[in-house]
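Intended use. Records such as the Acyl-CoA reductase entry shown here are meant for training and evaluating sequence-to-structure methods. They are not intended to support clinical decisions.
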Amino acid sequence: MELQQRINAFSKLGAFIKQFTGEAFRKEEHILHNDLFFEGFKHQIKLAQEHNGWFTKKNIVFALNGWANELTESALNQWTSHYNFSKVKPQKVAIIMAGNIPLVGFHDFLAVLISGHHVVVKQSSNDKHLLPFLAKYLEQIEPEFKGRITFTEGKLSDFDAVIATGSNNTARYFEFYFKDKPSIIRKNRNSVAILNGKETKEQLENLSDDIFRYYGLGCRNVSKLFLPKDYSFDAFFEAIYKWHPIINEAKYANNYDYNKAVYLMSEFEMLENGFLMIKEDESFASPIATVFYEYYDSEETLHVRLKNESDNIQCIVAEGFSKEEIKFGNTQKPALWDYADAVDTIAFLLKL
């Protein structure tokens, strides 16, 4: 199968997904095989919501919208134009996926197949409904994908390389278990925002999207703020108020109440506004409904700190701080070439 065939297939998948990116799902007559798949995917979205309380319709739709925007022929061509796929010898690549946000493993799935390899997918039990159905649609629009896509719930076997995502603890297990295979092993990471006190209301409102989207469960969610000394939180709390309805959602509210009780019983100092707690802490990973913060003396010392901690950081949200920074509000809108942990997945796959 030629690269252009694979690009065409994924762009058609993107067109199919685009029907599910609004408040109301709209069946478009020109989409291939819609009579076979449209109602079925609606059902899978419903099942995903019922199976995992964090996968609300709003969060699933947001994830699907991101993929619909990236799975276009122009974006796929732009992404793949930087690589030479002519010497690929198809291998079986196993993917062990996380399940923290909807379709979190889709980029690895896409990268393996667009590279010309075969994929063996082991999903998280938290996110098991959406991808297999999309894979079936992909096989329907491009039959040459049949036999190249396998889903397994058992022990992985018969594969040549692996991409595995998990916690720091499971990563140690992965590194031992897959020590004889080419691999990408991903561990826990968190995202940070650097504020200077001069941010506009719009920037801070956008930052609230980086904090609250997916309830803060993604590695691209901002869980830590770096602030100048004497920073006033007034503008921050005012700007994030647009997210206050989140406290009406039971799973989030339960975590808020629990973590607040822990902080109060432990006599930790913190600020809170009824739906988010702000706590001074050197850690990067904050609990749900909490954002940690830390003061910095100068941008120079902060650059050194973040460089030393680079293995723990996924995204840096800032304005005018570094070349790697991401604009406020954009952490959950990665492009195809925004690789997790800054490891080029396609380059890895082309070396197999």
